[in-house]
Specification:
The complex is a heterodimer. By secondary structure, chain A is mostly helical. Chain A is built from 12 helices and no strands. Chain A is flat. In chain B, the strands form 2 sheets. Chain B has a 6-stranded mixed sheet, sandwiched between helices. A 4-stranded antiparallel sheet of chain B has the order 2-1-4-5, covered by helices on one side. Chain B has a single domain, classed as P-loop containing nucleotide triphosphate hydrolases (Rossmann fold), CATH 3.40.50. The chains are: A mainly alpha, B alpha/beta. Chains A and B meet through helix 7 and helix 8 of A and helix 2, helix 4 and helix 7 of B.
Chain lengths: ~280, ~250
């Protein structure tokens, strides 16, 4: 009787574990499907011309998405230039002044900024920059994406710096090193890999953003390196091509989607690797 | 007359409303080891940290009284310059994790942006590591990370880092409390060796350690200096009943 009860419990135990494993597997099924479709539909579109050539005039087949790849890179660089310095400083401030009132409000503000819908950020940047300058531009697109990157960088910097043992800071200060040099030469290097991985993750997050670019970078059919002119970006191109009636453009949209996902996955995996190196150190 | 390198005069320290050290008078003699012992929470670490003004990092820290380094009041000095003259070693070894052994030793110069020629640097690193009794163990691995060393070696690396700045006084805040007995014995030997070149102020909760290494012993209890004198005298004929009770293990 008693033995039976224990056996019954062991069976329940196994069933429960099995259930957990099944649920865990189910959760990665959608990702599997997405990758499968992207490879089936997108990979055939990829060839050398696709990557290095600009678009051909409508009606002529062939051509590529080089202008969108370059545009996306320009937007990412602009966004990073705007958000990395600010994000690092704010993150450091929050980590170093954990309990101050200002830190509380800044943290709250950053959290709210993170939850603002991306389309709203697009409209705001449109009214701040595009309207006064009377033109769509890569600059305004970078600004919008930078605003979206900012909270991610702030929080990851704060978390990383917070994990650095206080004793290391003490060691530096006790050698008579001024506070600002301690922060720049001891604390930042100690958290470097964590901070870098945060930046990579934030880039991965904005690389596929479309909404904030509709009113800002706007999109373009030409290769453009001037940051005060509209540029194409990969998500915008995918949106436009996929909603067009031409089969050719659909294929290109799949190809661009494939490239974009490869880019984002690479960033994610690199960030993980960078972070792991750091974790091993302590 | 014997040289008193550090004089603590009517000194009190508080965190907010809580007074941790009250009215301490203490004179530290040149090239001697002075141990400050007492039960946990008696204010001995705070007293030590007040000497290089590290306790100020704590918000709401306030002090009264004076601490004189030679003939200068340290509370009228720039804390950054002061800390370059008074080295400190902490409870837990804390080498800089991103730096090699070599860079750790020279860190005081490097982080402060003090320019040295390569010869000068090599010289300081070698001398400091020799003084910290670590040279023979690491001389072939100077460019490896300091965090790969054992706990005892890391602590000696931290001592070398402090010595590299050529301080007048070396503050040791329970430097062996995180180490095993063997590493502890090694560090104690080293401390005794070091007093030839530097004045040492040692905080410890280990009574036996104070007896083994120090020339003078101060007994701090509830923030007050109960007894201070030549170590032998304090341990054999304590004048205060509380010292006797502490030494015989009635509390602490």
């Amino acid at each position: 009787m008693c033995i039976n009860k224990i056996e019954w419990r062991i069976i329940k135990d196994r069933v429960f574990l099995l259930l957990l494993i099944i649920i865990a597997l189910v959760s990665i099924v959608p990702l599997g499907f997405i990758l499968y479709f992207l490879i089936i539909k997108g990979a055939p579109a990829i060839n050398w011309e696709f990557i290095i050539a600009g678009p051909k005039p409508y009606g002529i087949s062939g051509g590529g998405i080089a202008h969108a790849i370059v545009g996306t890179l320009i937007l990412i660089i602009l966004a990073a230039l705007l958000s990395v310095p600010a994000g690092l400083s704010i993150g450091l401030f929050l980590a170093e002044n954990r309990k101050s009132k200002l830190a509380y409000w800044v943290r709250l503000g950053v959290d709210i900024l993170q939850s603002i819908p991306s389309i709203v950020i697009g409209i705001i940047v449109w009214s701040w920059i595009v309207k006064p300058m009377r033109m769509f531009s890569a600059f305004s697109g970078g600004m919008a994406l930078g605003l979206m990157m900012l909270p991610v960088i702030v929080r990851s910097t704060e978390e990383t710096v917070r994990l650095i043992p206080y004793s290391i800071k003490e060691a530096s200060l006790s050698l008579g090193v001024p506070y600002y040099r301690t922060v720049l030469k001891v604390i930042l290097p100690a958290g470097l890999s964590g901070i870098v991985s945060g930046i990579l993750l934030s880039i991965a997050r904005i690389a596929g953003e479309t909404a904030p670019l509709i009113f800002t970078a706007f999109g373009s059919r030409f290769m453009n390196l001037d940051i005060f002119k509209p540029v194409e970006s990969m998500p915008l191109l995918i949106y436009r091509y996929a909603s067009s009636p031409y089969q050719d453009l659909h294929t290109m949209a799949w190809g661009a989607s494939f490239l974009l996902v490869v880019l984002v996955l690479t960033l994610n995996i690199t960030a993980k690797g960078v972070c792991r190196r750091w974790c091993r150190k302590y | 007359m014997v040289q008193k390198v550090l004089r603590i005069i009517d000194f009190s320290a508080s965190y907010g409303d809580g007074r941790v050290v009250s009215n301490v008078n203490l004179e530290i003699e040149d090239n001697k080891i002075t141990a400050v012992m007492g039960p946990s929470g008696c204010g001995k670490s705070t007293l030590l940290r007040a000497v290089n003004r590290m306790h100020e990092l704590h918000p709401n820290a306030t002090v009264e009284g004076r601490i004189m380094l030679k003939d200068k009041d340290i509370y009228r000095m720039n804390p950054i310059m002061l800390r370059r003259q008074i080295g400190m070693v902490f409870q837990r070894p804390n080498p800089f994790p991103t730096m090699s052994i070599y860079d750790n030793v020279i860190a005081g110069y490097k982080l402060n942006g003090i320019k040295l020629s390569k010869d000068e640097r090599d010289n300081i690193v070698e001398k400091s590591l020799i003084n910290a009794a670590l040279w023979s163990e690491v001389k072939d691995n100077l460019h490896k990370r300091g965090t790969f060393l054992s706990g005892g070696q890391q602590q000696r690396l931290c001592i070398a880092r402090a010595l590299a700045m050529k301080p007048d006084i070396l503050l040791l805040d329970e430097p062996t409390s995180a180490l095993d007995p063997k590493a502890t014995a090694f560090i104690e030997e080293l401390i005794v060796e070091l007093k030839k070149s530097v004045t040492i102020l040692l905080v410890t909760h280990n009574i036996a350690q104070a007896a083994r290494v120090s020339d003078y012993t101060a007994f701090l209890f509830l923030g007050e200096l109960v007894e201070f004198g030549v170590t032998e005298r304090v341990f054999t004929v304590p004048t205060d009943r509380r010292t006797e009770e502490y030494l015989t293990g009635k509390f602490g």
